Amino acid sequence: MASQAGHVAGASVADAGVAKDGVAATEHKPPLVLSGPSGCGKSTLLKLLFDRYPNRFGFSVSHTTRSPRPGETPDVSYHYVSPDLFQSLVDADAFIEHATFSGNRYGTSKAAVQRVFDKGRICVLDIDLQGVKSVKERGLGAKFVFVKPPSMEILETRLRSRGTETESAIQARLAASRAELEYAAQPGAHDLVLVNDNLERALGELVAFIEGVYGALKGGEAVVLDD
Ligand SMILES: Nc1ncnc2c1ncn2[C@@H]1O[C@H](COP(=O)(O)OP(=O)(O)OP(=O)(O)O)[C@@H](O)[C@H]1O
User: In terms of residue numbers, what domain contains 61?
Assistant: First the structure.
């Protein structure tokens, strides 16, 4: 799609859940927030987790002002909105976190998180440090998991072997990762610091943490946290 101007599907202020029904995301199960340096293995771990426990987890669909890329589906990959509409959503306090990357704005709306909860699923947010700080300020009771690479050298190797970034993008990601690691080193910054050394071991630790918070994942029934 060449232009996103005027494309606002799924993204009006009302649809973003702003005081629509008076129900805030805080009244529901806390989201699970995964963060960590680019290349630390968040997507890999989440894919394994989602495959192992189908229908138990869901991503919220973010809003963005960037244009759709080939292969992306509006309102599935993202809600693509104009900069003006994005700003109106910010003004209406529709987002639990939002940030700007490379000149484009991205945000997680309360309504998008709500939609995952409404399906009885644990809502997973895969966000960066900026987003983590915003979600914390919201006081949603979110659970924060930091995925830590075994070392900077291994992180760099994984980023390079993934083969998806240019050299300058790799350098930018490595620089950003230092800030993420410094933040994560502060006591109480996250509820779990998960070293992604061996995938199966790390996944096991993640599952144990999730079950401690949300209850058992096995059994086929929806996972719902009682207040
Ligand atoms: N435990 C592991 N051992 C070896 N390789 C791993 C491990 N975990 C992930 N990888 C590899 O590291 C690379 C980066 O992983 P992944 O894409 O999941 O990172 P990410 O944290 O989601 O990055 P981004 O934030 O940029 O999306 C991938 O090629 C993945 O296969």
Answer: 29-211
Classify burial at 102, counting beta carbons within 10 Å of its beta carbon; exposed 0-12, middle 13-18, buried 19 or more.
exposed
Q: What CATH number has the domain bearing residue 67?
A: 3.40.50.300
Asked whether residue 142 is assigned to any structural domain, the reply reads: yes
- Which residue among the candidates 66, 115, 138, 173 is catalytic per the annotation? 173
How far is the centre of ligand 1, averaged over its atoms, from the C-alpha of 50 (Å)? 16
Residue 216 lies in a domain: no
Tell me whether residue 76 is in a domain: yes
Helix then strand then coil, % of the chain, to nearest 5: 40, 20, 45
Total structural domains within the chain: 1
Residue 105 is a catalytic residue:
no
Is 220 within the bounds of a domain?
Answer: no
> Nearest Cα to 80, choosing from 18, 8, 13?
8
Q: Whose CA is nearest to atom 15 of ligand 1?
A: 41
What ipTM, to 2 d.p.?
0.96
Does the pTM exceed 0.90?
Answer: no
Q: Tell me the pLDDT of the chain (227 aa) as tens digits.
A: 333 333 333 333 334 433 333 334 445 678 999 999 999 999 999 999 999 999 899 999 999 999 999 999 999 999 999 999 999 999 999 999 999 987 999 999 999 999 999 999 999 999 989 999 999 998 889 999 999 999 999 999 999 998 888 999 999 999 999 999 999 999 999 999 999 999 999 999 999 999 999 999 975 444 444 44
